[in-house]
Fold these 2 entries.
Entry 1:
Amino acid sequence: MSAPTEFHDRMLSLGLARVAEQAALASASLIGRGDEKAADQAAVNAMREQLNLLDIAGVVVIGEGERDEAPMLFIGEEVGTGNGPGVDIALDPLEGTTLTAKDMPNALTVIAMGPRGSMLHAPDVYMDKLAIGPGYAEGLVTLDMAPAERVTTLATARGCAPSDITVCILERPRHEAMIAEVRATGAAIRLISDGDVAGVMHCAESAMTGIDMYMGQGGAPEGVLAAAALKCMGGQIQGRLLFRNEDEKARAAKAGVTDLDRIYTRDEMVTQDVIFAATGVTGGTLLPGIKREPRWMTSETLLMRSKTGSVRRMQYRTPVA
Ligand SMILES: O=P(O)(O)OC[C@H]1O[C@](O)(COP(=O)(O)O)[C@@H](O)[C@@H]1O
Ligand SMILES: [Mn+2]
């Protein structure tokens, strides 16, 4: 028998799915109610409660923020019973709080777990991201390329025209120039209002989602979570932290990040094998949302392991009390 402190990813994966599931079910009654904070809080509470049932000595490395701003699931919080392997946890209890409040597609609950030291301790700043799906040469497209070059390079590798490529981008004023440049190549753009973890994951399932590439600036924590997802699903992501002021640089220093200009690859953001779970809150391209019926609630969860590349879709149904 191996040591109890080893990271048993097979055994822990069902527990992780339960954490994502319960967070999603808890926020279900707040879908479309216009209250982002309440929806987020419900997911946070449920996620924390479930995490604390797991036999792990977990530390939140990507969480709700720093201790002084987040009372629960703050960065550095210890979770789990303490009886079990030491693990790092990255989570976003409700990725797409606004999507949930407005009942718009692709809100997810997201959690990843790996051995201690397996994930980049990204501070809560922005990150410039670029992602493509599996099957391409490593480093085919890079953040150093201009947006148009990324598109034409991907099209050439795929043997298609740029007009056959669809790029997913967050609709923000800061992306106006990027959007114009990508459009000038002839490529299509799927603009999303929120939810770039899902945006990146869409690249790994382009046949299902129609998305070939993701680019633009979003949350750094979401970048690490997306890297964990792609490590399981296949596909590439690069990220570069962005700092708007000295305070943000100080946060990076506090998190142990010293090289501020570095471009991180997927395997530099997530350096060891991880497990990843995401449950659909509102219905989307990758996952259906929570279904509420008079007697039942039903959820669907993607549960994935990077070690094997296995992807499970788990439907869960529970009676409504
Ligand atoms: O809204 P901003 O400041 O552009 O930030 C973008 C980030 O916010 C989100 O759209 C939503 O995140 P939350 O729902 O967790 O707040 C992320 O997917 C994305 O990375
Ligand atoms: Mn988020």
Entry 2:
Amino acid sequence: MIDAISFSNDTLHYLDQRYLLLREEYVSTKSHQEAIEAIKTLAVRGAPLIGVAAAYTIILGINSFKGSKEEFPLFFKTLIADVEASRPTAVNLFFASARLKQVYDDNFATDTIDVLFAKMNEAAKKIHLDEIANCDLMSRHGVDQIKIDLADILKKRKLNVLTHCNTGTLACCGTGSALGVIRLAWQEGLIERVITSESRPLLQGLRLTAWELQHDGIPFVSISDSSSAFLMQRGMIDFGIVGADRIAANGDTANKIGTCAHAISAYHHNLPFYIAAPVSTIDITIPDGTHIPIEERNADELRTIFGTQVAMPDTPVLNYAFDVTPGKFLRGIITDKKAVVGNYVEELKTLFGQ
Ligand SMILES: CSC[C@@H](O)[C@@H](O)C(=O)COP(=O)(O)O
């Protein structure tokens, strides 16, 4: 499997996803500032991977600390604020920083700095290992749900699945969230073909998902983002499955811009549309999608394609990185704990023991 991120010898190693497929470039850094820049520029990307990268970035930051124990609280507060300011929508980033803050809160008063840092290191590694394990759990729950929901078609033939953006190894560390489900469904003989929508402007679907599918020998075809309704109308898509950057308590889901249009089209055509995401992507503190901060990115991402100007340099642009799909358009939310279908307000709470 592709190693999108790893941490060894106090060094963060990652595959720079901005240049795939033009070049496969691995970067190693001990600098937390460089790691923050990697998150901001989407060199590392995808909600679970952003969470893992954020945890290791905090470790790089504390490793660079040279002051006394008394000076650490202010340093740590600034470090956390800098990491949290890197990308606003993927809640996994805040999940990771909250975990490390908890280790700090629980141990700072009693531990030496060295012991505290060792505990934080362990916590960061655990976030990483948990996300890998989550992929396998989501995949199992997702495939089981698909077998139930699409049983009638599966008696006759295999399925054509639509996915958007990239939710595979590159985004999740393990086999993936939505792409993990697709991989297992393929291994179990349920999939005819995967349809990957390009995911303008940064083309995560066209570049990254296609690359991962090719790597695994899974048949796929890529489409422009605006093609999905037409393909559904023609019976060329049986269901959709995507990842998430933040899920509100009522199931409203932020994911890569373009997801909402796919989900509404699927709903119109009576096709199941699923979200696959680990529980670390659910923000149970917000009641609905209106509370999800939506990242707006640089206008030049839209005006240019890989550095080539494709619009007037002063073309006014709205470049929202994510949209919010209302929960009512979703057939289910596949998590590592279980597949949640039905009443999201009641069901999602139970994942948090509420
Ligand atoms: C499992 S990844 C889920 C999402 O993070 C993914 O679909 C997505 O929107 C990624 O956006 P990106 O801007 O590439 O970080």
